[in-house]
Amino acid sequence: MSAKAWVAKGPKQKMALESIDLGPLGHEDVEVAVEHCGVCHSDLSVLNNDWGISQYPAVLGHEVIGRVSALGPGAKGLKVGQHVGVGWTANSCQHCRQCLSGDQHLCNKAQPTIVGRRGGFASHIRAHWSWTIPLPDALNCAEAGPLLCGGITVFNPLAMFAKPTDRVGIVGIGGLGHMAVKFAHAYGCDVTAFTSSESKFDEARGFGADHVVSSRDSAAIKSLAGSIDMLIVTVNVPLDWDAMLGTLAPNGRMHMVGAVTEPVPVAVFPLILKQGSISASPTGSPVDIATMLDFSARHKITPQTEHMPMSQINEAFERLEAGKARYRIILDADF
Hints:
Layout: E1 2-7, E2 16-21, E3 29-39, H1 41-47, E4 64-71, E5 83-86, E6 89-91, H2 97-100, E7 111-112, E8 124-128, E9 133-134, H3 150-161, E10 167-171, H4 177-187, E11 190-195, H5 201-207, E12 211-214, H6 218-222, E13 228-233, H7 241-246, E14 248-256, H8 268-273, E15 277-280, H9 286-299, E16 305-309, H10 313-321, E17 328-332
Parallel strand pairs: 10-11, 10-13, 11-12, 13-14, 14-15, 16-17
Antiparallel strand pairs: 1-2, 3-4, 3-8, 3-17, 4-5, 5-9, 6-7
Helix pairs in contact: 3-4
């Protein structure tokens, strides 16, 4: 089958609309007719080959919402016409220890949807049935795309480590952080938002933050010493790490989901004294994603989005790179 797709021929190049050959449908694959696809900063990183893993020509897009248009003979649990989503991962080996234990996202043979495969900035996309996630009926499908990558990235650490009685800090109120605030608030936590932009203070409160602090104000951060049970860092910029770690309560945790490329300096002794920890995580397993979508539907959580037609994909990437997105861009298929 052939499909239409927005293709990047090399690093930092504009994407152009082309016809591509999808080839035969795999035995356990699902074909999805794309309706919407979120634009994630990871798409920009792969477009620019920031991580050194990109393969060209590239079809990006990994926050895909659409309907099942075809099923391989071995695909399970789905039906043609069903609304589904595809996130960062499109397949995993299905037989390693991680896959068999339910941590498929940690499989060392997991296949990113946009590296070595064709992503969702296209009329159709393919993924393994286990990574093609059914959407709850109560979820607004047009707004749900960013949940499949950004949403699960911040939901998973809350599900793994936080309690509803915890005091949770969210560092960075952007594409990831604003969803983290919504999730933590719905979970019942006391939420402190840290942002470098005072223009976002009121918005952070609107997302559910109980307190808002400037991440540039070291004195204000230090005034929170010993008060945060879990601090989720969603940014990839240098911070006053000593002050941030100082906010942790005994048994507190700083959890990293922003792709910080520079080393993070850690004073170990203060961490030892409070029995603190530092951790990190990527996205989540198919069950984690389904759980997050159910939680989102139950609490009516959707990202704050702006929509553009997919034909304006290059303008959307320029807007994202300029830091103008508030807070996630969704491209609506208009082939």
